[in-house]
Amino acid sequence: MAKYKIIDNFLDQENFLNIKQAIVTSGNFPWYITENVSGTTGDSDYYFTHHIYKDHSINSSYYNIIKPIVDKLNVFALRRIKANFYPSTKEIIKHAYHIDHPTPNTGSIYYINTNNGKTILDDGTEVESIENRLLIFEANVKHRSTTCTDDPIGRFNINFNYFPTKENKQYKGFAQ
């Protein structure tokens, strides 16, 4: 059974609006199509991604815009940061269950816009996409995403995989 924590209004309004403007409303954010949302065979859905941090280094000029999230998470070591854009669909599509990485690590999903899409954890918990919400969970435990139907463009979030500091008592009990 997954352990998780939800924090609403995670960032102050200024930092939240900077992120939303840069990633969703500016029209300048570079998105890249990715097939197989969950990375499993048979999942023919697609979405758009942008790797902000991967392979042990910053991979995007947008890192500084989302750095307030990294700072507030009190990260010891990053594994990956990836922005996700799931285009709106006529009916909700539930993607296959997956894990982000097999070794224990902490995952966080930062929701940029409010919509009827969800993150579904292995115990059946459905976390609603509400702007400026953060979900913290064990990323080596199965979970899945969905599309949305009520936002004309789609669902936007940022996925973080990391190891928190040992002193980080706020998230004590999560995989470290």
Secondary structure elements and pairings:
Layout: E1 4-7, H1 13-25, E2 32-35, E3 46-54, E4 57-58, H2 63-73, E5 75-87, E6 106-111, E7 115-121, E8 126-129, E9 133-138, E10 143-145, E11 154-164
Antiparallel strand pairs: 1-9, 2-3, 3-4, 3-5, 5-11, 6-9, 6-11, 7-8, 7-10
Description of the molecule:
- The structure is a single chain.
- This protein is mainly beta.
- It has helices at residues 13-25, 63-73, and strands at residues 4-7, 32-35, 46-54, 57-58, 75-87, 106-111, 115-121, 126-129, 133-138, 143-145, 154-164.
- Strands 1, 2, 3, 4, 5, 6, 9 and 11 form an 8-stranded antiparallel sheet that branches. A 3-stranded antiparallel sheet has the order 8-7-10, with no helix packed on it.
